[in-house]
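Exam review. A common question shows you a sequence with its structure tokens and asks you to describe the fold in words. Practice with the pair below. Do the first one on your own.
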Amino acid sequence: MENLEKLADLFKALSDPTRLRIVKHLCQHEGTRCVNALTRQLSISQSAVSQHLRTLKQSGIVYGERMGNFVHYRINDSYFEVLRKKLLEVEGRDFLVVSGSGLFSFGPGFWDQQSRITELEEKLVDLRQKTEEIEFMIDQLKDEG
């Protein structure tokens, strides 16, 4: 039961889109980031970044290191390896992929797929607008003829 509770905590922590953006950013940019850097790079308020990092830290997904006056955060790679093993125990299958840099996804290419989906959604909106314009022009031609 303890394993399921830990998994539930992880998924709760990752259920917020902003926290997912922070985790994705930390995974894609090796090294550490302070709250101010994440604020600038993700266009999120400083207080929001701090609150989300607190949640991620409490769940064990990230950890902070004090460097001078600032705390720098990084992905906790070892946490994801432990998590992968727990998922394997609970589910009997491995669906969490972890790379050496801490980048994780639910199946190969998850983040790439999300970017591609967003790109396709934007193209679909453009196509719908063009279709409406063409339908309008056809209606005008019918009215003239």
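Now try the second one, then compare your answer with the model answer below.
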Amino acid sequence: MRPGKTPDPRPPIRHSSFEKFLIPHMSEHWDIIITPRRSIFSLNLREVWNYRDLLSLFVRRDIVAQYKQTILGPLWYFIQPMLTTIMFTVVFGNLAGISTDGIPPMLFYLAGITNWNYFAECLNKTSTTFRDNQNLFGKVYFPRLVVPLSIVASNLVEGRKYRFSTIS
């Protein structure tokens, strides 16, 4: 340790003799051990709750942007899954003869497509969240978890509209 430096108050990391055998350099003594200040799973949900109005604004923004960018508008959310369901019913039910164990084939494939589309949309959109909103992150502070949560919530709202309107 250099003169004038304060010692690290954290206890040194202890390794088993088996780890020292596998990695010989672990028996060396280090002056500084870098450890994270917080756990990787500390999400600070209280701060997200304080910004719930921003979360609702992002959800509204996502829904409005989706409806404005399609020619058919919200009608597209009904057409696309229905066409896919009909295609699956014809291919898997009629041509391949795959059983749905007594469940009506249209309902079986519609339920699967709805859940899969929700999962796929959430995964695809949240994977590019930080790249797509990088200009917003640099301008003002807010919890970074709000934007991916808004995408998941907006997909849930859109999916809920679709599910309840086709089942009834």
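Model answer, second protein: Helices lie at 17-22, 45-50, 52-68, 76-95, 105-127, 129-132, 134-139, 146-167. The radius of gyration is 26 Å. Full marks require stating both points clearly.
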